[in-house]
Amino acid sequence: MPTTYIPTVVKDDAHREGVWGVAWSSVTDTVITGSLDCTVKCWDGASGDEKFKLEGHSTGIISVDTNRSGSLAISTSIDSNIRVWDLENEGKLLHSISAPPGEAWTSKCSPDGSHFASGSYSGHLNIYNIESGQQVSSLATKKQFIMSTAYSADGKYLACGAETGIIYVFDVETSQLVHTLSGHAMAVRTLSFAADSRTLISGSDDKRIHVYDVEHGQVAAALTGHNDWVLSVASNPNISKQQMASAGSDKQVKIWDLGMRQVLETHEVHVDQVWGVCWNSEGTKLVSASDDKSIKWFAASGSG
């Protein structure tokens, strides 16, 4: 029988405005959220209690992420400000990076925790050193707005999705473009590598989710089920489960079986579009964040 995910903790009015970004720190068991109210908040991953609030951004938060160890958080805002926070020291600000206008959008940490990549309006994928806060390189695409980024778990690949529906996949070691993936008709707002590091999942404004074989540069499956833009996809880090979660403008959170290529369950717990979903490191819980200002937790049956 497939695992059932049960809604557990609910945080209504978690922020004063919509919540656009969410991440889960594995070591500190902290859920990090970023909102249009210009704040980043950290929540206890088990109880949902607020731990501390990170302030300093002057415009709305686009994305949040953590390094693999869970010790650091990264946030990016609409004005291209990037901030690096120390989660082990109550969110102490380590770096405030003012990128040129339009040169910082969705940012993701590398698996080894040494760098993070940020998309941009100009079509560049900018790479920063986390320790120094300095930009160290820039990968060029086709001058299309890069809206989403993702590293593979083994650190081999770095993918980014453009407003045109094209996905670019780079070899991290050589910084060379290895695949240009097509198939989507509209913007790719979200990307996630599966735990095997060879399967890339994308979500698009065309209401579709694509599953790509990155090694061969081919579409393995096109999944339908959402009735509006797909705003977030997240692969379950437990490779044995072969699951992913998705969320979209249709206010739905869906759990998928990647092996069977089908929806296992649909949750309608939000009253506005859902911008983010993410899993805990064990793949037993997930959390969703929405324009309705709320955060919702789900737990696999039997996981507590």
From TrEMBL:
Signal sequence coordinates: none
Source species, domain of life: Eukaryota
CDD domains: WD40 (cd00200)
This protein's UniProt keywords: Repeat, WD repeat
WD repeats mapped onto the chain: 12-44, 54-95, 181-222, 223-266
PROSITE patterns (UniProt xref): WD_REPEATS_1, WD_REPEATS_2, WD_REPEATS_REGION
The name this protein goes by in its record: WD repeat-containing protein 61
Source species: Umbelopsis ramanniana AG
Organism placement in taxonomy: Eukaryota, Fungi, Fungi incertae sedis, Mucoromycota, Mucoromycotina
